[in-house]
Structures
1.
Amino acid sequence: MALSTIKSDLSLSQLLCIQIEREIVEGKLLPGDKLDEEVLAARLKASRTPVREALRALASVGLVHIQPRIGATVNKPTVSEVIELFEVVAEMEAAAARLVCVRASDPEIAKIVAQHKSCEDQARSGTADSYFDANTQFHNMIWSAAGNHVLEDQIVLLNRRLSPYRRFVTFKPGRQEEAVAEHAQIADAIQNRNSVVAVVAMREHVTILGSDVIQLARNLRL
């Protein structure tokens, strides 16, 4: 996506940050890839200063690693670190699902259920990217409806680090169908305000499986 298509009220460094982050999340830049400021500046048609600022911003959220005299690379976590990220986010999203059951308004819950239907539609007839976007929106709605801004902020922050690996698992053949069925359990539990079932369903949905870890590590060079 061209920088010109992103919100124009953002600074150039913020626009570059969004673009580079998207390339990391979409797997166009893989863990360990060198992020040369001069090369990025030429490709993204910007000067090196905003590129440097963008890389520092991405380093602050764990997507980029910067070393003195070596420069910036796409962060390359260990397999254990990726598993730990999934574990923490799974627990946090489970907490959000519980809070939705006990405090979200009926209209908020109705929107979550409707978004689940959108995920089903995208899984049947959409593209992998459109399904991933619908899936992301489903989770975002739950975080927001939980009504706890601290929890939501922390999930958003950790999920930025997790997104490249979450996207990889989501695109695994057959995973969309499994995820839609899991979403159905979550949406049904939320609609019935059954916090016990919602917590278990969300935790199991987000937790990464051992087979996924092995394939992820092999394909993303972890």
Note: The mean pLDDT is 91.
2.
Amino acid sequence: MQSQEFIPVTIDKSHIITLGERLYAESIEFIRELVNNAYDADATLVEIIVSEDTIEIRDNGSGMDREGLRQYFNIGSQQKLYSPKSPLYHRDRIGQFGIGKFATLSACKRFEVITKKDDFVARVIFDKEQWGTTKDAWQLPLEILPVDFRKQNGITVILIGLDRKFEPNDIEAKIIEGAPIKAPHFRVRINNHAVTPISLSGHKIPFLEGTAFGPVSGEIVILSETASTTTELGIEVKVKQVTVRRELFGMETWGKAMARVRGEVNADFLPITSDRTGFIRDSSEYQEFLKIMEKIMEGVKISLQKLTVKKEGRKVSRALKEALQRIYKSLAANPDLSPFGALPIGDEAKGMGSAAEISKKKEGVTEEVKTEEKTKVPEKKRKKKPKVKRLTPNAIIKRIKFGETGVSCVVDSFGEDGPEVFSEETTIYLNRDHPLYKRESAKVDTHTLNLARLITQEIALMKNPRNPRQAFERQSKLLKDAFINRD
């Protein structure tokens, strides 16, 4: 009987470095991984010291003994899968693959690991050049150090002989995005500077949804228009408090509005790819997650539209109020141009609906008008005010009043192909959808002037609708006195 033979499976050590480089395209990722390892080891503080030629990462976690060091240099160790919770703070452990340490050799010549766990203190030196010269041997030198070499438990990793310069700001950005710095009892400092999460101000929409695989939670923030930016678009999707990637969740069809939406969503059950840059999208977990996010983003879109309309409404209301104030003063100065007659003393122009008071006591009225106002028959029946129909909930309505009469001005949506302005009795309708209105409303000054132009046009036609030429001249005079005299 022929004896059984075996063929050994070998891996070239250079491939390990190459694999690490590919999985962690930026060697700066290794620093982020060390911070997460410290979190997994129940550290409360991680100190990062960056200099020209070295980077030192020091934590006060539980440290490693001999067995811990063996696991640390065990490529692709599954240890954290078997012990998913940290012993002291019961944290959900983040690290998985254990390959990132080899990626750092693309950025430095060697790194040292110094560990203390109770009475065990040791140093392991990983030298890239020496390691490459020993083809078959995979041993790393272990040096036992005096117990008092380090005062407290924890791990120090030193990157020596950097091939390129690392900016502290870049390291900080990576840690903010990829480390659990919001977790309790956990802090990170870089060159004595505390790393803090980015705080977004705006309209906040928190959410918590349940699935068969676990909860989906987070917060979406709708930024102000001035704070919106086209950099780092999308929502941060986090697994165990670490950002895996940013997703748009359909916002790519929202146009410029998507620049105002930021936030984060946490879904610890999502399966991620081996390089930690994406998700296994055909998994049941991810498909369920997408359904939840579709529902959440629909609500975000509605909130964004409401905020946009509300802000636009305030802007239109201010411009309309300003236009009516100017028109009132112009009519007071030109009573012969008014279809309502001369203005009585002490008359006020008041808003309608959500509008505030437009003007106070007016001056420059003739004595004859005073007499008419005083001898007016008090029992005279008031004319009924025309009814103003709100065509949409977003309509802006204000009224300019002249004694017992006046006009109501309605800014509403009548479609791009609708008239720019039209009147029904003493109600003037202005079309905010009209292309000319949209163009002129882009700036405050032109917005007010355009509203005044449209309103004075209708008021001038009310004086004598059969003579458009005279109406045009009356409008020109009203506009001139409304703007040039006041300015």
Note: Residues 13-194 form a domain with the Heat Shock Protein 90 fold (CATH 3.30.565.10).
3.
Amino acid sequence: MRLREALTAAASRLAEVSDTSRLDAELLAAHLLDIDRNSLLLSHLDAEVPAGFLTLVDRRMTSEPVAYILGHREFWTLDLKVLPGVLIPRPDSETLIEAALKWFGPRAPATILDLGTGSGALLLAALSEFPEAEGMGVDQSPMALAVAAENATRCGFQARVRLCAGNWGQGVDGPFDLILCNPPYISTDAELPATVVHFEPREALFAGGDGLDGYRVLAPQIARLLSPTGCAAVEIGFDQAQSVGALFRDAGLAVDVRPDLGGRDRCLILTKSL
């Protein structure tokens, strides 16, 4: 069997657990061949099936996320390491970087804070766009901080990044020109795909019965830490703009809602009220 036949067979199997079964199979094969997916499709479809391919397909059949199998995930313009126990960066979260870039325009923040930094995705993406800025990432997970440190080095930003163990903004001194945060915002009663709920860290997903527990803590902290001339970009669930926005307005912040590429509410831009 050549690789093209193996990919077709694997995609047929993976269709039971994945809506992107062909893509999954191609990414797994490219990983084993140490090439990118485009190279696989252009010049390797008639190659021999790489050793270990069926093993990786079997892992994916358990609903294990492709990013954990591969050990990395692209976010913004960066290729980031990810491990089980650390939330996988989502394309929707890139909305926060786009919103921050639009808000600052020709200006640039000098200091950036990422609360709940996880893999460091938001912080490192922002630093890639603001090359003169320095950043701090805070997370309560030692594993997440270790992965974020490795990603900072991987991206060449280690000299511009400080990582700290902590509970959101507690004990952090500001002000910061740009604050980024993708907190857990899913209700504990919500049903999630097996690929998420059985593999990704629950503490990075769930936030109480209404999904707002994290925001209740963050609202006064962000109001305290934000520079008078800066902004915060905070991720929300698609149906949370009104409820989360009210919490930040009560903390004295002005709120603007930004949509993701699908047109769903995804980001709040927060500023000091004038």
Note: The two ends are 68 Å apart (CA to CA).
